[in-house]
Amino acid sequence: MTPPGPAMERLVVVSGPSGAGKGTVVQGLLALRDDVWLSVSATTRPARMGEQHGRDYLFVSAAEFMGMRDRGELLEWAEVFGNYYGTPRAPVETALADGYLVICELDVQGATAVKRAAPEAVLVFIEPPSLDDLSLRLRGRGTEDPQSLSRRLLASYDEVKNKGLYDHIVVNESVGKAVGELFRIMDQLKPQKGLL
Ligand code: 5GP
Q1: How far is CA 54 from CA 14, 60, 147, in A?
Q2: Res 151 pLDDT > 70
Q3: Which ligand 1 atom sits closest to the C-alpha of 16?
Q4: What is the pTM of this model?
């Protein structure tokens, strides 16, 4: 990871196993707050049905991704489930400089890289109530083929093992409750004057 810019204490990394509902929880938070900005990652993974370039991800080719990485345009990057994912640096730094609380949804490698480079960043782990529940949710979502499903379930066990790295653990028993917890975590951070 390239050295971070200023205001990293307002950078919040949200991680959690695939299917833990972190996307839904983050969207619930965004609906309630206008002082939070969500980073859009670049990925080489193909778009899923309904996903939009620029909104859900920047869907790029491997060559484009490597170009961004080699030019130092990514705050962090990782290979996850056979694809590359990375956080474009400039938009995050602009949002922080504009006074926003910034959320990046990253895997555990990304969270570790951010914490190493910016210990003041806040790491939040969103956990399903149980791994059985996770398996049900991931199957129910219907977005993965059987191979990707089992790969994601196996990786979930590893992600949950790493939750000790995180500053806060939010158990997603109900979306409303989890959004409330994330809301309170954001409240403990310092938004820049003028935004609220
Ligand atoms: P999905 O393919 O389900 O959208 O994401 C797979 C995993 O990659 C999730 O754990 C997600 O949080 C993580 N991820 C998404 N964007 C990034 C990124 O920019 N960097 C890193 N390190 N992980 C990411």
Answers
A1: 19, 10, 27
A2: yes
A3: 10
A4: 0.89
